[in-house]
Amino acid sequence: MNVGIIGAGTMGIGIAQVAATNGCKVWVYDANAKQVETATVGLEKTLTKLVDKQKISAEKMTEILANISIATELKDFKDCELVIEAIIENKEIKTKVFTELENYVSESCVLSSNTSSISITSLGAELRKPERFIGIHFFNPAPLMPLVEVIPSLLTEKTLAEKIYNLMKEWGKTPVIAKDIPGFIVNRIARPYYGEGLRIVEENIATPEQVDEAMKTLGNFKMGPFELMDLIGVDVNFAVTTTVYKDYFYDPKYKPSLLQQRMSEAKLHGRKTGKGFYDYSEGAEKPVAQKDDALYQQIFLRIISMLINEAVEAKRLGVANDEDIELAMQKGVNYPKGLLGWGKEIGYAKISETLQNLYEEYQEERYRQSPLLRKMN
């Protein structure tokens, strides 16, 4: 299969690697020609490390690199059967690229976006053939993370989602099909993991390290919300939350955090800037959480209840089927268990009671329950 990738950032070159590893001929284009060169040099280094670790053979490395070509203009995509765009999260810029691309590709070429937060329907609606447009959302780093969200728009041809779903399986990925709603499955359901953690710290109930420790020890999460925000980028996480909040017509459930906004403004973006909620400079010591079992229990129950409520609401709205909701959270953000199953394990009545208590305490719509939650058992 001939595949075009627009954007040679981390995501773009990662997706190119996945396609090339699976025998596709790949063309990579970036408006900044230098970026493509930098990305291909970086990919060569990555593959060399994989050879050294005996994860792939030297022959496989040669084959992968031979499958990737640099495109100098969008016209070079004329023979592609699938084009995946992975550029800046800006609707106007993406639309401009797609409308130009339509002039060069064949009528049967599938066009797609790797966007994590922009409406697939709104991007596709600008095209002459919106029925060939679909969302294919990989997770970072694309070669390692198994999950791919496949998102048909309201205008996408009915059988296309299944075709892309099957292609992703052939590429060794774990695909799920999601409705075109803000945040799709993962970025919608995961919002309380960060949002509620931030709220707890803003209210001086606990410190970031206590919240992280509670979620790791009681929930078995690999990383606490603050460690994870530092890894993702505090600014990136804030931008996604802001987009989801705005796209849900300012639903209080997704309200961004002032603390996170101030951190973004101060350029305390986490690991990439050397300082975020934690200090990553050389010799800096990570603060040790002051252990408090009762507090840890309170933190865990509050955050997990919000997450389970989001998963139940996604089920109620048919955002995806139960299996895909469970798979998405485990394969997309490494949750230790599927949230619907976790709710059953803790007891949906307990989750409902926790949210009701929070609602009564704060008098905020943020803590309203999914109508389906009370009926679950």
From TrEMBL:
Report the residue ranges that make up the 3-hydroxyacyl-CoA dehydrogenase NAD binding domain in this protein. 2-180
What's the source species' lineage? Bacteria, Pseudomonadati, Bacteroidota, Flavobacteriia, Flavobacteriales
Outline the extent of the 3-hydroxyacyl-CoA dehydrogenase C-terminal domain: 183-280, 302-376
One GO molecular-function entry: 3-hydroxybutyryl-CoA dehydrogenase activity
Question: Which Pfam families does the entry mention?
Answer: 3HCDH, 3HCDH_N
Oxidoreductase in keyword set: yes
The record's section on InterPro entries has: 3-OHacyl-CoA_DH_NAD-bd, 3HC_DH_C, 6-PGluconate_DH-like_C_sf, 6PGD_dom2, NAD(P)-bd_dom_sf
Source species, please? Answer: Chryseobacterium culicis
The processes (GO biological process) annotated in the record are: fatty acid beta-oxidation
Name the record gives this protein: 3-hydroxybutyryl-CoA dehydrogenase
- Keywords, alphabetical: Oxidoreductase
